[in-house]
Design a protein that fits this description.
Length: 91
């Protein structure tokens, strides 16, 4: 098991780049764990500038849930209306 990375604080209504926040290399498969209460939307792609929608696609993430992306993804972003805290690690 690798060392635990610091939690990522997702500010309300702000797109957060999970690779940039954690220092994990883009394209590496990651696991995102919602800590405490919160609701967020996860998006995999090269860029994201606003809230993911049905048109862009997203994976919902709620309290206590774990989600993973795919190895080789061009980017990994999270967005939350009220803000939240997640922990990210290499999967």
């Amino acid at each position: 098991m690798s060392n635990t990375l610091p939690n990522v604080i997702v500010e309300p209504e702000t797109v957060t780049d999970l690779y940039a926040e954690t220092g994990i290399t883009v394209g590496t498969k990651i696991e995102v764990i919602m800590i405490g209460t919160g609701i967020a939307k996860l998006y995999a792609g090269a860029t994201l500038t606003t809230e993911p929608t049905d048109a862009t696609g997203y994976i919902p993430l709620v309290s206590g849930q774990i989600a993973t992306n795919e190895s080789g993804d061009a980017g990994a972003f999270i967005w939350s209306r009220q803000g939240c805290t997640v922990n990210v690690r290499e999967a």
